[in-house]
């Protein structure tokens, strides 16, 4: 289904023989590249002869999942001059005959999108996001070669990618291209004995971090009367911490990591009820859920440079995984070392017991990814 958005005066006439013309930019849902051919008539220089000039415009479109991000189109043009014998009354059909053969005639279509220098294509790819770069690399050889340029991928990497690699791997790998480094960082990488995971978002290039329940300090976790670790496929770490019944509920954690400059949000991933499987189907046991709707749970976040935030809420939604916001923190551009943050989740009112809660992990996301996190 073709949606014609609006027409634009896309190019000024290359020479005085061309009149003003408009090109309709048709954005097709599945089409990423297409050619337009425009013809300009000239006066006859001899009887029964027509000189036509074709302007070939090669367009490829850039679509974005972000509704706030505008659609973009890049185009290149070349002028081709052909002389046709034009008997009276056959001009219209002759034009379509020659126009239909333009796609297979190399003499008519000498310059094309594949003839662009890789350095020129690389400059265009630099303005796209990583997912779009990989898609356009399949267009032709010029785009494929340009998609491996180091300066293209260095602009997509976090500024402190060397410190991030040293934190995850314990050292910086040599002889890797910038594209290989981005590919490695965009995967979920485990470190700190598998209790933490870090990766770079493929769309935005923002750093994401996840800390398992085993990487947190939980009061009474070693007492099997209160806490236990249960296996589940719903967790990145294959197991979650489950509290059966307790009076004093307190979870603390901290992380020291080289976060790039930006604003980040901290969430606790929780689940009311005990998840499991029965006959291959996922089920949730909510019999032991109690005490969370009497007094609110308090979430706190603090950083070493004095930032502090706190919030509280009731836990009422049973049977589904939910992310509870603990707070936001800002990393300045001038900061080049690691950022240390502390966070906690408490419900220490000992007038009643509470239980039936699963604690999966604590996640740190760029604040720009809030909507995507809620959808997940």
From TrEMBL:
Give the InterPro entries listed for this entry. Answer: F-box-like_dom_sf, F-box_dom, PP2-like
Could you tell me which residue ranges the F-box domain spans?
A: 115-144
Q: Which residues form a coiled coil?
A: none
* PANTHER family, per the entry: F-BOX PROTEIN PP2-A11 (PTHR31960:SF16), F-BOX PROTEIN PP2-A15 (PTHR31960)
* Name of the protein in question: F-box domain-containing protein
Q: Which organism is it from?
A: Capsella rubella
């Amino acid at each position: 289904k073709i949606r014609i958005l609006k027409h634009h005066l896309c190019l000024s006439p290359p020479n005085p023989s061309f009149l003003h013309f408009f090109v309709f930019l048709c954005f097709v849902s599945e089409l990423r590249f297409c050619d337009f051919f425009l013809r300009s008539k000239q006066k006859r220089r001899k009887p029964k002869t027509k000189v036509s000039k074709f302007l070939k415009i090669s367009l490829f479109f850039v679509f974005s999942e972000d509704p706030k991000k505008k659609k973009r189109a890049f185009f290149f043009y070349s002028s081709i001059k052909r002389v046709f014998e034009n008997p009276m009354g056959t001009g219209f059909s002759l034009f379509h005959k020659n126009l239909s053969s333009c796609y297979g005639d190399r003499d008519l279509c000498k310059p094309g999108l594949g003839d662009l220098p890789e350095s020129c294509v690389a400059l265009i790819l630099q303005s796209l996001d990583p997912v779009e770069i990989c898609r356009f690399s399949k267009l032709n050889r010029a785009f494929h070669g340009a998609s491996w340029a180091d300066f293209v991928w260095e602009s997509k990497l976090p500024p402190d990618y060397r410190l991030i690699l040293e934190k995850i791997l314990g050292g910086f790998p040599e002889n890797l291209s910038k594209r290989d480094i981005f590919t490695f960082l965009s995967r979920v990488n485990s470190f700190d004995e598998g209790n933490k995971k870090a990766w770079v978002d493929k769309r935005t290039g923002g750093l994401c971090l996840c800390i398992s329940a085993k990487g947190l300090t939980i009061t009474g976790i070693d007492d099997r009367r209160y806490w236990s670790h249960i296996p589940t496929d719903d967790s990145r770490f294959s197991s979650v911490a489950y509290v059966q019944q307790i009076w004093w509920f307190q979870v603390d954690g901290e992380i020291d990591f080289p976060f790039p400059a930006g604003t980040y949000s901290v969430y606790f991933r929780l689940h009311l009820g005990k998840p499991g499987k029965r006959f291959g189907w996922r089920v949730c046991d909510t019999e032991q859920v109690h005490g969370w709707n009497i007094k609110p749970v308090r979430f706190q976040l603090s950083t070493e440079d004095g930032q502090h935030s706190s919030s509280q809420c009731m836990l009422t939604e049973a049977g589904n995984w939910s992310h509870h916001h603990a707070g936001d923190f800002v990393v300045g551009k001038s900061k080049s070392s690691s950022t240390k943050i502390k966070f906690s989740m408490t419900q220490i009112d000992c007038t009643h017991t509470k239980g039936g809660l699963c604690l999966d992990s604590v996640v740190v996301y760029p604040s720009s990814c809030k909507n995507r996190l809620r959808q997940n």
